[in-house]
């Protein structure tokens, strides 16, 4: 505390120690030359930048140890710019440290608190102003003003309404309908069960009359993973097993956690792993979550084949694909 | 005419038209304390300027549109691939605009440095107690700038619309959707319908280049004006008091140093942009929701958030048919909300605990505020554990570890390690205080051994300099608040629990090794 007796007295600011450049004119001249040399190097940097811009074509590569092959044009521009800027800074600081007065200066702080009289006057003024406006007494004005201000704040919210449509049924639907053909992605070719070897995995899409109509919005909910196992490797409830075809099982590729593409399939363990947050799904148990933050299995698509043996969806997904949302179960 | 005379004429010209002589005279003589740790905030400021300059360059070619185009540029591997105009123009900047890749890399490096400098500056301000009265407001502005910086950085690396950035946006959309009741509505409004739609790139573009930079400019201006008006804090030392500022005047010393430092920061950033590849978007390919690259990582300042989301338990609850995704809400919104609110309010919390309502312009040595320092170490440990988990896939592949074990390690570590860090740091601070006390009382060890006539060996101690002794003893040690449950008139105080909590916190906060007193010194002398 301030009243506490300080054991050691403040010895005060240490005496200023002169630098060599303060006392020796030769050292000062030397420092000046050093600063000028740094500014000179900076100028050379700009020259390097100009030369690189004009004379080095942008398809020339040079090998630089550690960094490997580097685009010479880009490197010349960057290094020139770096040298030009860095040495201006270095020169300025060297100038300040050697030649500008380095005596520390003491300045007094002003108190933020105003004198008592001013503070009192200020408070009085505020009170007087508030009183003379009648805001305290005339409660009708106060209340109606509050209501008007509050209501007027609604207008920007209302005007922003057209940022997007209201969530509709499309939020829960995909382009998978009964009888939709599974097609390769890329390629858009129909698939036969025999096209898929045991142990392999493929990404497929629902067939579009014109593949050009397939936009990112469609891919974001339609992407499907086909995985083929030996039927004996499954460990499924009968109703789930009935949704597979000759060991081929189909899951939504959109993670049930945050919607990333569940793209990593580990053949030996038959696990699907989402690279975003490492949710791990067991393919043999209908994509049950066995690790990570996902709370739900990947939705499974009921598949079968048509008369010619091409894979089709028997039914649409029975639940929305992708991350959870408030009204998902409704 | 000499340079001095010319500048004098300029000063005259300015004053005759503005009458600013008195103000400018005072300003040019304004004193700034000098310390390396005061440069951290400057690095952030200069990085911001670099971001404005390099970002403006990029806008001349960037096309913020999700219109589908077929790539026909010089980068062969993507020849003929369908992509958004945004991604195509980002490739154009990288491969065909001369200096474009350099500017993109400078922009990205500057953003990383900007965030790193803000965090380092925040830690300096926190650990030295620079946020105390009268600077609480500026602390809150700083926390606001940090938060905006995280958002701005995220939007920035989402703009090129490559595979990595689209994945980040997808995750952001999942977080928005997880908000109870209104989540789907907010998501539909933000994206103009279902994800991804065709609107979000132009929308986040205008937020990234206009809205947030405008907010930054306003907040940074107020931040700096407050530093100017309230004057900078200084470290304790001989001749430095709560009532003065010791340092160098703005003109010429500080101007030259700060101006020079700007060029050094710019030079280093340009060097990084020249030699260190960052965010090579052409390797990721255009965004499509059905693909992803293994090892997808956000920029470092988002890593802790990603790590939190990764370690969350798989909990979702359903009531009346409605879904609440706790596995997203807790790590994605609730914990960050608590952390940032707590950080913003910390100056008020600390002053409530200590009961100290005075102005402070002298900084604390971190050891002399053990509780605060320990709290800082605890928060840092929390962030570090979550950040490590954010990179768990890369750690697993690089060090040949099991990703499940890393995840479980951090899941447990995030609860165990921060309190441990608190306890260890607090003990360390108290030990350092004890060492300071020893140093003042018995001097420093010289390493010279003396053999006494009795055959005993003793080490010679030398008294430390008066300047050093002053630094080690000039801090104040506040006693704990005395908050009995009943007041002087025997009436029970209101808010018993709150009072008890405050008394306990205050007691913990006041724990210290008593600093050397005048009596201690007298006693030593009499030996």
Using CB atoms under 8 Å apart, which protein chain pair has the greatest interface? A-B, 98 and 118 residues
| Class inferred from helices and paired strands of chain A | alpha+beta
Query: How is the largest sheet of chain A built, in terms of strand order?
Result: 4-5-6-7-12
For the record, the CATH architecture of the largest domain in chain B stands as Up-down Bundle
Count of structural domains of chain B: 2
Strand content of chain A: 15-25%
CATH superfamily annotation of the largest domain in chain B: Cytochrome Bc1 Complex, Chain C
Q: What string gives the helices and strands of chain B in order?
A: HHEHEEHHHHHHEHHHEEHHHHEEHHH
CATH architecture of the domain at 173-313 in chain A: 3-layer Sandwich
At the first level of CATH, the class of the largest domain in chain B is Mainly Alpha
Question: What is the assigned CATH homologous superfamily of the domain at 173-313 in chain A?
Answer: Rieske [2Fe-2S] iron-sulphur domain
- In total, how many beta strands of chain A? 14
**Which range does the strand content of chain B fall in?**
5-15%
The low-confidence parts of chain B are: none
What's the gyration radius of chain A in Å?
A: 37 Å
Taking pLDDT < 50 over at least 5 consecutive residues as the criterion, the unreliable ranges of chain A are none
Number of strands of chain B: 8
Shape of chain A: flat
Mean pLDDT of chain A: 92
User: H/E element string of chain A?
Assistant: HHEEHEHHHEEHEHEEEEEEEE
